[in-house]
Amino acid sequence: MQTRYCIVGGGYAAAAAIEGIRAHDRDGSIVLLTRENHRPYRRPLLSKDLWYGTATIERLPMHPDEWYDEHKVEVRLRHEVIEVDADHRRLFDERGDEIEYGDLLLATGCRPRRLRAEGAETPGVGYFRDLEDYLALEGRMDRLQHITLVGGGFTSIEMAAALRSRGKEITLVIADEYPLHRMLPRDLGLPLLDFLRDLGIETVSGDVLAKVEETVGMVHARTYLGNELDTQLILVDQGGEPLVDLAEAAGIAIDDGIVVNEFGRTSDPHVWAAGDVAEFPYQALGQIMRIEGADHAEAHGRVVGANMAGAKLSYDHIPLKWFRVGEMQFEGVGELWARLDTELLWIEPGREGAVFYLRDEVIRGVLLINVHERIEWARGLIREAKPTTSAERANMLGVKA
Ligand SMILES: Cc1cc2nc3c(=O)[nH]c(=O)nc-3n(C[C@H](O)[C@H](O)[C@H](O)COP(=O)(O)OP(=O)(O)OC[C@H]3O[C@@H](n4cnc5c(N)ncnc54)[C@H](O)[C@@H]3O)c2cc1C
């Protein structure tokens, strides 16, 4: 078959790309292929709201089913694309179907980084990325009493807190001294670890799993430092790896992700990439980056979709990164790297505050902790890119002297 636009992926970037295309081309045919069983849905709800009961499955879809018909999109669920032949502008799925495209969007996101431990392929070791993973875990909840989370990423700690709130015994194994080690300064990371412990989560820091064995419903794990763990399920979150395989095999430029310009175009003029999988010029920071986050995937997908349909929009959004651990809500923008100079300021100690990420006293990133509706303000600070003093930052945040 032939289509004007072909979208590979069923996440935020894919759904938003449809909106972008349709804002500039009302009629060009669109085919969306996703290997998932569901139309695009809000993945972040999987690790928090669904467990806390603040959202139900019905709230997951980004758009109702009929929206795709109204926007003249052919959605092919359970279709995995296995090859892109960029020279002839066509692709193939695992069923042997061939699609010729005018323009192609790769919005394939990430796959979970696998656990490297002896026995790691046992069924007692799982990953948590898709709605199917959520449904499988929810379906087993009655039979699970102890779950081990491996990894110090935000999904891992969100899940640890969420499953604990459902009365499960939780062990959290993190390779570093504290979770979110690359993002949080130590003076915030250690209190976060204490916060998790106060929720009743057992934590093992500075250690990784070396060996996993499974015997009749129980999983036994040993760490490099010799800790022994008995659990019923190990869930691994060691971050994501961008799914660049299709692009790479098609000869499209790859770095930390699929390389795109400010319009979302790859090294092939008819292939575009958006969302978690794309490495793009982050204009406000003046550097090339790849970001894993829902707000970025949605905003990027929309802009890139519009550009596929002939717009010339340069992507200059400052994406929001948010996560929630129990009652702690984190929202960050900019360069959230603990390796920069950091300053943690509390409005209310341990409850409300912000981390400023600085380079030569210029604010490069801001992470807000339980501070709401200040994201536009934080974005403004990053755009300004002016040196500030500690007193000025405290004053701007509203810290009482
Ligand atoms: C549990 C969880 C919680 C999260 N919570 C937050 C949060 O609180 N805040 C936040 O900012 N971000 C969060 N994220 C990250 C956020 O969900 C992602 O950044 C976002 O989904 C990326 O969107 P995307 O469209 O780029 O990729 P994805 O949403 O990963 O979608 C990629 C799609 O492509 C499909 N696909 C891949 N390869 C193929 C192929 N060859 N053929 C067909 N289909 C293919 C995949 O199956 C998938 O449907 C969370 C992620 C997870 C997993």
Care to describe what's here?
Strands 1, 2, 3, 4, 5, 6 and 18 form a 7-stranded mixed β-sheet that branches. Strands 8-15-9-10-11 form a 5-stranded parallel β-sheet, covered by helices on one side. A 5-stranded antiparallel β-sheet has the order 21-22-25-24-23, sandwiched between helices. The model has no long low-confidence stretch (mean pLDDT 96). The protein has 401 residues and is an alpha/beta fold. The protein is globular and about 55 Å long. The chain is built from 10 helices and 25 strands. It has 3 domains: 2-111 and 241-308, FAD/NAD(P)-binding domain (3-Layer(bba) Sandwich); 114-236, FAD/NAD(P)-binding domain, CATH 3.50.50.60; 327-397, FAD/NAD-linked reductase, C-terminal dimerisation domain (Enolase-like, domain 1), CATH 3.30.390.30. Flavin-adenine dinucleotide is lined by residues 8-14, 33-36, 43-44, 46-47, 80-81, 107-110, 128-129, 155, 243, 246, 275-277, 292-295, 297, 321-323.
Report a brief summary of the structure:
This protein is an alpha/beta fold.
Profile the largest sheet: 7 strands, mixed
Q: Helicity, in percent?
A: 10-25%
Give me the CATH superfamily of the largest domain.
Answer: FAD/NAD(P)-binding domain
User: Which segments are poorly predicted (pLDDT under 50) over 5 or more consecutive residues?
Assistant: none
Total helices: the number is 10
